[in-house]
Design a protein that fits this description.
It is a single chain. 15% of the residues are buried. This protein is α+β, with helices and mostly antiparallel strands. The N and C termini lie far apart (105 Å). Strands 3-2-5 form a three-stranded antiparallel sheet. It is elongated. It folds into four domains: 89 residues, no CATH class; 101 residues, Band 7 domain (Tetrahydropterin Synthase, Chain A), CATH 3.30.479; 39 residues; 51 residues, no CATH class. It has ten helices and eight strands. Helices cover 54% and strands 21% of the residues. Strand 6 and strand 7 form a beta hairpin.
Length: 305
Amino acid sequence: MDNNQNIKIATKKPNTPRTFLPFILFIFVFGIFVRYGYLHDDFFICIGGFLVAILMSQSIKVAQQWEKAVVLRLGKFQRLAGPGLFFTIPLIDTVPYWIDQRIHASAFNAEQTLTKDNVPVDVDAILFWVVWDAEKAALEVADYLEAVSWASQTALRDVIGKTMLSDMLAGRENIDIHLQKIIDQRTEAWGVAVQSVEIRDVIIPEALQDAMSREAQAERERRARIILASAESEIAENFVNAAKIYEKNEIAVKLKSMSLLYESVKEKGGIVIVPNDMSDYTNLGTNMGLQQKLNNKNAGLDKPE
């Protein structure tokens, strides 16, 4: 794709009237001469008035608010005119360039460019720039629009060739800043200032995309297994510490046994079979009987004698 097709701004503009002022001036001047020639019955006055009206209408120019007109006098730079109304000397002064000083947005790309690690990539970017010196833009370079376009593309290729693919994918902001500095240095002599550069997309081969996807998935699985192993190791370490405490404290073992028994029946209830020695030191029968009597009393089933 032709890179120049991405840019919509025209650098040269034809010397056409911007308003109706030249036409109005032509009618006014020519009308005066026609009336004067009619009163004096002189046809040559009308012809002379026609020529004068053409010259005067060609001398009036209007530049838009965002434009600068480059005025040449006999082929030599004379001045910058505009915005607004200004006058030139017919047949002596010419206005070959109308410089647009608004911010321009230009798209450019680099296709099948090798990175530092020899990976072919396609990169699309946008350049925001403005003409800050209309005189330099008109006189120092033949076509500043085309020059900015090629400077941007070559700078992008240079940066890609010096950057690893991983850095390009992860650090676009750094590449944007680096590109802006390079392009701005190249275009400063042409009166062009680069506002910013933004990389829109980085396209890599499909085979490499699949490989990177598998690599990322494997890395996620590896991290998950490391986290699981760390958790299991921590749990095992806590079990060892708890066993050491139970080994030295018999009461703690009994409390743990009672806690386990309670946790096993608190949700849905059920029948629990416990060893005799456990029922002895927990008084399980007495406690369960008292609990059942208390439950019956709360339910109104305990009758007085």
